[in-house]
Amino acid sequence: MPFAYLMVLHAPAGAPSIPARIIARSGPLPTSAAAVRSPQEKVRLARDMRVLRERLSTTTAVQG
After folding, report:
1. Does the pLDDT at position 7 exceed 60?
2. Domain span holding position 37
3. Rounded mean pLDDT of 10-20?
4. Per the domain annotation, does 11 fall within a domain?
5. Domain count of the chain?
6. Is 64 a domain residue?
7. Is residue 38 part of a domain?
8. Which of 6, 20, 27, 34 could be joined to 47 by an S-S link, Cβ 3.0–4.6 Å?
9. Which residue in 57, 58, 4 sits closest to 34, CA to CA?
């Protein structure tokens, strides 16, 4: 069954991404940087971009 794996690490833009290197060398999936309007691939790990996969909601955010 196909699935997506998304790991989010909050860091400044341009900061070195050690977790991305660990993921790249520890598994069979290729890694790459996400790009605006890049085609989505079924087997691809992306890093260093904000990825939005659904429409924004008009509900109020809950603090806590």
Report:
1. yes
2. 18-47
3. 70
4. no
5. 1
6. no
7. yes
8. 20
9. 4
Nearest to 34 by CA among 54, 8, 3, 57: 8
Q: Contact 42/29 with Cβ under 8 angstroms?
A: no
SS3 track for 1-64:
CCCCCCCCCCCCCCCCCHHHHHHHHHCCCCEEECCCCCCCCCCCEEECCCCCCCCCCCCCCCCC
The contacts found for 25-28 with CB under 8 angstroms, 24 or more apart, are none
Task: List beta partners, residue 46.
Answer: 32
Q: Which amino acid is at 48?
A: D
Q: Which two tokens stand for residue 7?
A: 């790991």
- What is the maximum span of the chain, computed from C-alpha positions, in angstroms? 40
Per the confidence metrics, is the pTM higher than 0.70?
no
Q: Beta-carbon neighbour count of residue 45 at 10 Å?
A: 19
